[in-house]
Design goal:
The protein has five helices and ten strands. By secondary structure, the chain is α+β, with helices and mostly antiparallel strands. Strand 2 and strand 3 form a beta hairpin.
Length: 240
Amino acid sequence: MPTSDKALNELVALLFQAHPWHGVVPGDDAPRVVNTYIEIVPNDTVKYELNKASGHLRLDRPQRYSSLCPMPYGFIPQTYCGEAVAKRCAERTGGKGIKGDGDPLDICVLTEKTIAHGNFFVRAKPIGGLRMIDGKEADDKIVAVLDSDVAFGHIEDINECPEGLLDRLRHYFLSYKQLPGMDERRVEIAETYGRDEATEVIERSFQDYRAHFGAPEDRIGELRRLLLADVAGGVDKAKQ
């Protein structure tokens, strides 16, 4: 990064809070360990979700029924479920007409600790995931453990995870959109996969993000270019 861009980057970081989706990097160790923005925790009786435009956490809807998310749940920054993620889902399931859901990649973080609220970042180690399909949309849920967690931090792959905890997670995602009286299930979990496949899905979500939003490392340079162009435009107007 040029010296002028680095100085501008440091100034922006001092003046403004970073957007949780676009302004925070996945981490130097990604995808082995990823920064994770937590939106909801197990004791939330309402569903919080990031407002994509503002970067603020908003109340999406009350949880209508008794099923609550059994783990802290959020997304990996600078990811996107688009064409590459959808293609992988189709390859693995044989599904036709599948597309990405257009959201950042979801992640659930297993920890022994009780966490009171969301709207913060943690470091999480992906160990696998659930290949979830919502209608015709790929909606993968990466499963991770909290980095250095005393009880679960040693787990390296989802097959080491207690099956009862995975059953709770599957039940939540299969039921949270299933209203009483609905005969046809809207959501399906086509596959439970391990760490290697989770790495593949995360890498593809990075590709999709860059395809849709550009390279994050180029943004400060683009900001500087726009600022200089605006200044030059103002000078030209003053001369007229």
